């Protein structure tokens, strides 16, 4: 388990996924059929809550369909061994007769565990976290039916903490990727995983907030926050909505002691999809680039520019020969949106451009001297 910021932010190293339940007063409406979005067979679920024996509301029928798509990932890697500080002292070695080169192994093999989600049953494509497979020499995937498969790492992106694996097997189950932009605070969430190595576990909660950042230094973040109980062992696991669609990939928790305190974070499915598509196409992720230095519009700047509120990104500088210069962007311009999606802060704009495909055309909504207009820009590298 990797800790960030004095042990406050904790990446969720571990094995498998988690699911939980908070029952509403009644059953949810049926879900429409889910297309596989070009990723092979996926799930189209009926109401999540169903009436079981003696009138008890239950998630069991839905979980029976969803949970086979969540896998355990075991990773073997070689890491540098921490030397004994006493053995690094020549006087100590001489006193105890320790010959040169006998200080102990310089490397050691470690086995760690995490979770993954099958998103393409035909091709055997699995989404997980970068930090789960970082440095892996051997990756093994265990399905819910206990089949053990060797996995190939197709690509990994530290900036979003997404990695893509592939396995060869039949009779796989895949989850459909939801449109995470449509998720709302208060939506039911189900987390599936293997906390603390206990085995596949289910917890439930709601989406507590959207657009969280500051978890991964220099990362491309737009995390969904959930109170569905997530613990070490859930990295790469599934955050599922009430239809059983994949809305996020669990990645981190806010915790003082390493366990769940009801604040967990998941990478939205739309970001995971964008990264996966680049990896499947090119084997890597190349960041989009406009060529501007930016900062978030402050209340004082908004007032001076006549903006109705402090939202948007002001351009502080434009690089020579960049895409921004070619399309006519200037210092002092305020970018309000990309393809109609608001660019509320510098972090949001950085993510919007950084995750765009190089060569794609985007529509920038710009405010200049009190007037709003659109520019078409081709994403550079």
From TrEMBL:
<keyword id="KW-0645">Protease</keyword>
<dbReference type="GO" id="GO:0004252">
    <property type="term" value="F:serine-type endopeptidase activity"/>
</dbReference>
<dbReference type="Pfam" id="PF13365">
    <property type="entry name" value="Trypsin_2"/>
</dbReference>
<keyword id="KW-0732">Signal</keyword>
<dbReference type="InterPro" id="IPR001940">
    <property type="entry name" value="Peptidase_S1C"/>
</dbReference>
<feature type="domain" description="PDZ">
    <location>
        <begin position="287"/>
        <end position="370"/>
    </location>
</feature>
<keyword id="KW-0378">Hydrolase</keyword>
<dbReference type="InterPro" id="IPR009003">
    <property type="entry name" value="Peptidase_S1_PA"/>
</dbReference>
<dbReference type="GO" id="GO:0006508">
    <property type="term" value="P:proteolysis"/>
</dbReference>
<feature type="signal peptide">
    <location>
        <begin position="1"/>
        <end position="27"/>
    </location>
</feature>
<comment type="similarity">
    <text>Belongs to the peptidase S1C family.</text>
</comment>
<protein>
    <submittedName>
        <fullName>Peptidase</fullName>
    </submittedName>
</protein>
<dbReference type="InterPro" id="IPR036034">
    <property type="entry name" value="PDZ_sf"/>
</dbReference>
<keyword id="KW-0720">Serine protease</keyword>
<dbReference type="InterPro" id="IPR051201">
    <property type="entry name" value="Chloro_Bact_Ser_Proteases"/>
</dbReference>
<dbReference type="InterPro" id="IPR001478">
    <property type="entry name" value="PDZ"/>
</dbReference>
<dbReference type="Pfam" id="PF13180">
    <property type="entry name" value="PDZ_2"/>
</dbReference>
